[in-house]
Amino acid sequence: MSERPALFLLPGLLCDRSVWTYQEQALSRDADVTVANFYGFDSLGGMAQSVLEQAPERFAVAGHSMGGRVALEIVRRAPERVARLAVLDTGTHPKRPGEAEKRQVLVDLARREGMEALARQWLPPMVHPDRLNDAPMMRALTEMVCRATPEIFERQVRALLGRPDFGPLLPTIKCPTLVACGRQDAWSPLDQHEAIAAAIPSATLAVIEDSGHMTTVEAPAAVTGFLQAWLRV
């Protein structure tokens, strides 16, 4: 049996393993890394269960955005199996008033005009304003979105709209926990993460400078450094 820790990296909405490329390569030196695939799922519970079925008895899990909520659902279902938890650019609150309608506008756009049209509208608010001029990064993110389909997007939106309130779970989390956020994350802002970290007894808050919501891509070295330190706890 391998003595290396098992680490599962969980992507966010419309994201695939490419958002974890830098971290997967770097962290594989010290851990057995698996990047989850959430295409086709329409509930956070289904996503969480798919990870639990793949994972060994004890493992570390890091989730970005929607993946952070999946990581919390994994802890809710099987706290004894999670050795370490990291949540990045995420939230714990349930569906908010008007959220379903706003998300439906984007689903309708994807169905009507395609995934490239969705990417043009959905991606810019997700990154630091300065990153909009980073043509290779924006092209890679657009290509990632276009690898999904309107049906995949709709299912993942359904999963997010059906999410529970994870607030009551936070004080019960006992494992070493990293809560990380881009300082300029306009989608899941820093004050939200300060509250999450304050509610988890074992949590450390990490602020990723000069980054919006897509921290693993916008500031890959900084994110990896925080995760390497977290794995050594």
How does this structure look, described?
The radius of gyration is 17 Å and the shape is globular. It starts with 5 loop residues before the first strand and ends with a helix. It has helices at residues 21-27, 44-54, 66-77, 99-113, 115-122, 135-147, 150-161, 190-199, 215-218, 220-231, and strands spanning 6-10, 32-35, 59-64, 82-88, 177-182, 203-208. The model has no long low-confidence stretch (mean pLDDT 97). The chain has ten helices and six strands. It is an alpha/beta fold and 233 residues long.
Distance between the termini: 22 Å
- The beta-strand count equals 6
Radius of gyration: 17 Å
Structural class: alpha/beta
Shape by Cα distribution: globular
Helical percentage? 40-55%
Mean pLDDT comes to 97
Instruction: State the major sheet.
Output: 6 strands, parallel
Q: What is the chain-wise order of helices and strands?
A: EHEHEHEHHHHEHEHH
Number of helices: 10
Q: What descriptive keywords fit this protein?
A:
six-stranded parallel beta sheet; 233 residues; 6 strands; globular; alpha/beta; 10 helices
Reconstruct the topology from this structure.
Elements lengths: L5 E5 L10 H7 L4 E4 L8 H11 L4 E6 L1 H12 L4 E7 L10 H15 L1 H8 L12 H13 L2 H12 L15 E6 L7 H10 L3 E6 L6 H4 L1 H12 L2
Parallel strand pairs: 1-2, 1-3, 3-4, 4-5, 5-6
In short:
This protein is of the alpha/beta class. It has ten helices and six strands; from the N terminus they run βαβαβαβααααβαβαα.
